[in-house]
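Our consortium's second objective concerns turning raw sequence data into structural hypotheses that experimental partners can test. To show how far this objective has progressed, the report includes one record in full. It was chosen at random from the queue rather than selected for favorable results. The single chain below, 189 residues long, was entered without modification.
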Amino acid sequence: MSTKNIMIVGVGGQGTLLASRILGNAVIRQGYDVKVSEVHGMSQRGGSVVTYVKFGDAVHSPIIDKGEADIILAFEALEAYRALPWLKKGGKMIVNDQKINPMPVITGAAEYPEGILEKLDALIDLTSVDALKLALEAGNAKAVNVVLIGVMAKNTEIPYEEWLETIKATVPAKFLEANLKAFDLGYHL
């Protein structure tokens, strides 16, 4: 298998790191070589968080360069827009349509850009999801990350049951039921 490049972007506290662990564990279970790299930009204060997940028969570097991401999984609309240069031609972007104001918007130094999802949709293969609504339906607003993993999982060759087993092995028991439901809602969207 040629190397697959998946970039996960979001804001600190959205669960991007758990999402990358679920993804990494799922592809390890399939027997692939996996490399994961995390970049935290003031993540504890709502800053950007970027995770690169590369997998295939042999992966030598965890970094994804601009124009190389097969899939970008974006937990927030502005973060999706910022990540656009990393998406390869013909790649797919899955975006939570939620807007989280960055610090310059909160302080009044900038305005949140309008029409981000419409601009992205005109340029690329985009799937926009109200992941927060589905996470709430699953019973936990913090399960947005697993809803998005479910949407992405539908675009992989990994069987549904393997994803469920990976989530069971990765997510703490007290959050498992809501996360399994969140994954199912995303997968069957």
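The partners drew two points from this record. The first helix runs from residue 16 to 29. The chain has eight helices and six strands. Both points have been shared with the crystallography group to help prioritize constructs.
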